[in-house]
Design brief:
Elements (H helix, E strand, L loop, with lengths): L7 H4 L4 H10 L1 H21 L7 H25 L1
Helix pairs in contact: 2-3, 3-4
Length: about 80
């Protein structure tokens, strides 16, 4: 289990099977997931001071993560 908060499993409990199926079927969705993981990792590294960044950059990353999370949720709802 990852020590990074806000993983897809935490954000979308019980939907990992659907996420994996949609990822395999939709390259655009797979790219959104990849970006979400990348942004989430950047936030975690900033929060833990592994890779310190400015507060403005951290805020921008958090906003981007929310946008990506909304895109993931929308895709999951449309695929249901």
């Amino acid at each position: 289990m990852s020590n990074t908060p806000h993983t897809l499993g935490e954000e979308f409990p019980g939907q990992l099977e659907r996420i994996h199926a949609l990822k395999a079927a939709d390259p655009r969705f797979a790219k959104v997931l990849e970006e979400y993981d990348d942004v989430n990792d950047q936030i975690h590294r900033a929060e833990t001071k592994i890779e310190p960044t400015s507060q403005d950059n951290e805020t921008d990353l958090r906003k981007r993560r929310l946008v990506l999370k909304d895109e993931i949720e929308k895709a999951l709802n449309q695929a249901a």
